[in-house]
Every structure is written in structure tokens, then in C-alpha cells.
Amino acid sequence: MILIEDLSKSFTLHNQGAAVIPVMEGASLSVAPGECVGLTGQSGAGKSTLMRMVWGNYLAAGGRIMVGGIDVATASPREIIALRRDRLGYVSQFLRVVPRVPTLEVVAEPLLALGTPPETAKARAAELLRQLNIPERLWGLSPTTFSGGEQQRVNIARGFAHPYPALLLDEPTASLDATNREVVLRLIEEAKARGAAILGIFHDEAARARVCDRLVDVTGFTPKVAA
Amino acid sequence: MGMMERVAVTSDQPLLRVEGLTKRYGSRIGCADVGFDLYPGEVLGIVGESGSGKSTLLSCLAGHLRPDEGAITYDRRDVLAMAETERRRLSRTEWAYVHQNPRDGLRMGVSAGGNVGERLMAVGARHYGGIREQAQDWLGRVEIAADRIDDRPAQFSGGMQQRLQIARNLVTGPRLVFMDEPTGGLDVSVQARLLDLLRGLVRDLGLSVIIVTHDLAVVRLLAHRLMVMKGGRVVEQGLTDQVLDDPQHAYTQILVSSVLQV
Amino acid sequence: MSDYNFAYLDEQTKRMIRRAILKGVAVPGYQVPFASREMPMPYGWGTGGVQVTAACLTPEDRLKVIDQGADDTTNAVSIRKFFQRTAGVAVTERTTEATVIQTRHRIPEQPLTEGQILVYQVPIPEPLRFLEPRETETRKMHELEEYGLMHVKLYEDIARHGQIATSYAYPVMVEGRYVMDPSPIPKFDNPKLSDNPAIQLFGAGREQRIYAVPPYTQVVSLDFEDHPFVASKADHDCDLCGAADSYLDEVITDDRGGRMFVCSDTDYCASRRAEGHVGRLGTDERAA
């Protein structure tokens, strides 16, 4: 479902004498349907960079990123928009939403974007929020006012609202208490059971051990300091 | 008017195709060699500082200015070859234009209901009750209380005026909406409310939107794709979050780094 | 006769105005620009109508001039005298006898006939002006038949007053093409504009526009399906001649609320009374 081959990335800093900083080289990995692959490596080794490239947020300098039938490395924006709409989900560490929009709608939005009838979408959103123990009295409020843990759970609910066949998870259990951590891990297991291919970053070692089928150390993708 | 149906996202014909668009003011360049495709349901943001050519481009696209070179194809029709009658008919049926200053897009001497109803009447609506009902419905959608229908826009706040302008533009179910700094000059909280409204309308009505702004936070939340302009030329375009988070062009890097966290 | 050229204007000017009139007749409802002249009367006193009349008159014509239906008001009298003096034409107060009728704010009650010319004095010829002040834009709107704005005006009326409150200068569509301001005639007169055997010419002196409705042209008053046009008048009969079908003026008769309603068309009222019709307060002329 997710196939990465010989992927490389560099940043060109035009405002600092056009310095070219290579950050990744020869990255290759694959994630099969129903499989969860964890990225490991020290902070700054490029785990997030790799995830962002799969998401289409960072441009690749070379190589291939096959997801849901398209090569994200060369796809047009339109293809990536469509990919994100129905085939690729992303739970990032940060919640970025329009202020003022009620939590229930934030969570239902991926479904609404797919044309799901509003009642169905909101029912699914409510179900997830309940599972993740967001009190119902908060559903009508914007999550921008929530605590970090609450925002994280809203983000997870949103990421799991639609059964994407491929899913990117960036620290999904960070800043969660034991109860909610358990809920999230079960959601991941359910997603795997229905055949989702999951690529994730988990600092929580116990969580990693429980849901990940394989680990890939991104340190191996760090460019050799030949230059 | 059947506006609630969602437009298929995977439509493979662009709604608008722009090629090599150039507009000069004497020897000065307004915009040069601009090209892009816009598909149904897509929101394209155009950013750049004052004088970057983004407003000139929008005026050329909306038919307010005639470009010197290039081609504009709307729904397989050559816009620049159209008779003015046809183009003006388009701009009051399938197209809409939201001005930065609501005073430029509203009739200040006409009630809110009359403002919303004008486009309906312009395309032949002749049943007062029906027009009023639709106006009322649209005021509701943009969160203006029903009992304000007979008030004039001058009695509205800036945010309300802007919402009224949007209702007035969308009542005939356009497919392509041009927006020039629609949240400019509004308080931050009012901006957020308007952004939320626009997002919902774009999604529910399957609108294609071209939005010109200098506010990167606005495009981040509203636009699927982003075009960065400088000196009349497009220096970079791509997926909005990609352009903002991994800008490739020197100018875009300056633009992104010179704003506070977006 | 006097030392004036026939009908005051010089022949070149009359030719210029006639060209404008002919163009107006050829394109019913279209406002033709013309080089309006200074006339020996102030703007607002019918200078547009006077120039059109001057360009139409021949020595054989018989002229009638009315102001709000009356032949004997200052404005009507002075214009009538002007043409008696400068053209030496015959004048009349009888609608049926006149070949050219210049009018301000009314159409005579007596149906007009083929060969007659009705000349309207027009203050503001542009019906779209109320909502669109830019001349360039209103011209474009006429060119492209973008008339939604006219209905906005009527919409505003209903929204504010519960009905179309416009009671004079009520906009019309001419021959399915141009929206036209019929000059400030009461909307009661609007139906008479349509399918009329006479030539109807409109002159706006200050605004320098001439337009026309040729004989037997379709003229439709704008309205809504659920608020149809109604040619209303005061719900009374004429207190002098008893007419139930003519447009009435309300006249205050004392300071205790006393009032009477009389035909605004003085010739029509007088003719009826001469025929023996008597209203509530009228006296039988034949008996008198």
C-alpha cells in the first residue's frame, strides 16, 4: 500500500547563500495492507521529514513514494488533494483548524468532504469523541480552547473518522493518560484488522511494541557526510 | 435550485484553464505569462505583496480588465472571444465576485433582501414571495437574522456586510467565485467566522474559488492550492501546505519566514 | 407674426432634433442623445418638450398644451403663448381637435387617434438612475438588457410598503426591448401608453435625450407575478362631472378638512359637463 524507493530530500536555503542541506538519501521501505511500520531513530534523524514527504507536505528531491496508486513524489497537487481525501489519513501532533468551528464538525469534516450526509458524519464523529472520552459538553466548542491532551484526542478522532486504507500517525499516544492511550491503541488495531497500512512514529515504546509489526530505523537514510 | 449537490471531486475537466496570461500597463508589467488549471471544487489561493500582480490577474480573470496576451477557457468556452453579453451573463449567473470592501459589492441604498434578490431578478425571477423566501434562506446561511431582511447594509457591521455580500453572490448558485481579500479589514474573530462560513459553502456547494490575499493564515485554512506571485510573475505554485512548509523559491522563503507563525 | 424663425428654433436645429426623433421612433424606447438648446425659459419648465414640439410643428397644426391635465395653468399657458407668438399656429383646448399636444405629467382621458402627436416633458429620462448613478453603466445595462435592477426598485417598494408604492413615473418595457421612464405621469395612465394610435414623443431638455413610442407599440408596466401592476386612482367619482373612469385631483376646499375630487383633465371634465353629466357638487351647465 505504501512503497518508498530511493527517496532523497534536501533543503535549499536561499536566504543563507543558497546553502543546500541534504537531509535524506536512499530511503526505501514498504508497508503492506494490515501492517503497521514504526519509524525509529534519534530526534532529528528524519522521521517527521519522511512522514511529511509521504503526506506530500515536503517535496522529494528524488525517488518514489507510491501511495494508493499514485507517486506522491511526482503527483500534481490535485492528485494529492484527492489522495488525502479518500485514501491517505494523517494524525499529526498539531491540530490546525479554523477557530470557532465546533469540535463535532472538526471531526466530521473529513467525512463531509467525501460527501457523507451530515447526520451520518456527525453520528460517526460523536461515536469517536465518546470513545476518546471528550465530554459531550465540549463538542459544541472549538477545540482551539482545549488542553493539549484534548486537542490530541480530537486530532485522532478526526484522523480515524474515515477508514483510510493508508494512515500516517505522528506520536498518536503522546500526552495521553492510560485510559485514552488504550483507546487509541485499540483504534490502531482495528484499523490494521480492516487492512489499513500504517506508518507511524511512536516514542512510547510499549505502544510501539504492541502495534508495530516492523521497525525501520531512519538513521540509515541520513546522507553520508561526504560533502 | 439544486445547489446542494456535491460536485464530483474527480471531474477530469478543468473548470477554468488559464494560459500565458499577460497584462501590461504601458511598459510596466501587470502580470506576465500566468497559467494554471482550476478544477471543480478547488480553492486556489494567490498570494504576494502589493504590486505583485495578484489583483491585476484577478481582474483579468473576472473580465474587469482585458489581458494583452494569453487564453482563458471556462468550461470549454473561450472567455476572451465571448461577446460581452455572454460574459456579463456569466458573471451574474455562473460566476461571482466578492470584493474586499463590501461597499463595492453591495448596493448600500437597497435593503439586505433586495441585495440578495438582485441576481435572482437579473436572471428573470418575477415572483416577489419566491425571491424573498430565497433571500431569507441565504441570510440564514450566512448567519444574518431573518428580521434584518429589510434593513440596509449601512446599518450592518463590517463582518455582516461581508457575509451579506457573499449571500448576494452565491444566491444564483455560481460555479466559480473570485474573492479579493475577502477577510481584509475585519477583526480576527470576525475573520474566523467568515472563513468557517466560506469553507462550509465551498464544500457543500462544490464551488471553485480563486482567492487573492496577502494573508497566509487565510490561504492555509481555505486554499487547496497556492500560487505565489512577485513582480507580475508566478514564482511558485503547488499544494498550499507544501508551498508554505517547504517553499522552494527564494521569495516564498522570505514571505513565509517574515510572517508570524501560520 | 414676429421676427422669430417659425417655431423659434432655426432650421438646422430643427433638422437635428427631427433626426433624433426619427431615430427614437425607429428604436422604440431607446434614449437618443441630442444637442439640447437654450430656450427662453428655465430648465424644468418643459424645454425638452418645447424643442420636440417646435421640431414637429407645421403652420397647419393645431396645438394643445396641458400641465397635469389642465390647459389653464401657468406653465401650459406660457408654452401655448410661446408657440402662438413664434409659430403663429392655431391652438385649442379640445383633445379631439389638436394635432400636436404637449403635456406635462398626464395623458388625456379622451383616446388619441392616428395622426396626433403627444409630446411629453421629461425631467429624468433614465429609469435606472435611481439605483445606478453611472451613465456609462446604465447605457451598458440598456445595451445588454440587464434590467434586474428595475425589479429591485419594485422589490424595495413592496418590502417597505407592502405593495408597489411607485405611483408615477412607473417604469415600462417597450416592445419587449427597452425599459423606459414614461415621465412622471400617474401609473393610472400607463395602460394608455400601449397600443396607442398616436405618436408619443418624449423630450428631456436638461438631460439632452429624446425617445419615442410609435403608434401601436406594446408597452408593459413592470411588475411581479404575485404583485401585478394596478392602474390605480382615487376611489371616487369626479365631483363636477361624475366621471368614474378618469384620473382625479384632490382639492382642499376649506381649513376644516373639506375636500373634493375633480378630473385632472380639464377638457374631459368640461366636455362631460357640457353633455349634461353632473357630479356630487356639480351644477348642470346647460341649466346655468
Structure, briefly:
The complex is a heterotrimer of chains A (227), B (262) and C (288). By secondary structure, chain B is an alpha/beta fold. Chain B is built from 10 helices and 10 strands.
CATH superfamily of the largest domain in chain C: Bacterial phosphonate metabolism protein PhnH
**Helix content bin of chain C:** 25-40%
The Rg value of chain B, from CA coordinates, equals 18 Å
Number of domains of chain B: 2
Q: Could you please say which CATH topology of the largest domain in chain B applies here?
A: Rossmann fold
Strand content of chain B: 15-25%
Architecture of the largest domain in chain B, CATH level 2?
3-Layer(aba) Sandwich
SS elements, strand count of chain C = 12
- Proportion of residues in helical segments of chain B: 25-40%
Largest interface: A-B, 26 and 30 residues
**Mean pLDDT, all residues of chain B:** 90
CATH class identity of the largest domain in chain C: Alpha Beta
Cα end-to-end separation of chain C:
38 Å
Uncertain stretches of chain C = none
Distance between the termini of chain B: 38 Å
Give the strand line-up of the largest sheet of chain C.
Answer: 1-9-8-5-4-2-3
> Residue-averaged pLDDT of chain C, rounded?
94
Q: N-to-C SSE series of chain C?
A: HEHEHEEEHHEEHEEEEEH
Shape of chain C: globular
H and E order of chain B:
EEEHEEHEHHHHEHEHEEHH
Q: Could you describe the 3D structure shown?
A:
The complex is a heterotrimer of chains A (227), B (262) and C (288). With 227 residues, chain A is an alpha/beta fold. Helix content of chain A is 35%, strand content 25%. In chain A, the strands form 2 sheets. Chain A has a 5-stranded parallel β-sheet, with helices on both faces. The longest helix of chain A has 16 residues, at 178-193. The two termini of chain A are 35 Å apart. Chain B has 262 residues and is an alpha/beta fold. Chain B contains 10 helices and 10 strands. A 6-stranded mixed β-sheet of chain B has the order 6-7-8-3-9-10, sandwiched between helices. Chain C has 2 domains: 11-221, 3-Layer(aba) Sandwich (Rossmann fold), CATH 3.40.50.11310; 233-280, no CATH class. Chain C has a 7-stranded mixed β-sheet. The longest helix of chain C has 16 residues, at 11-26.
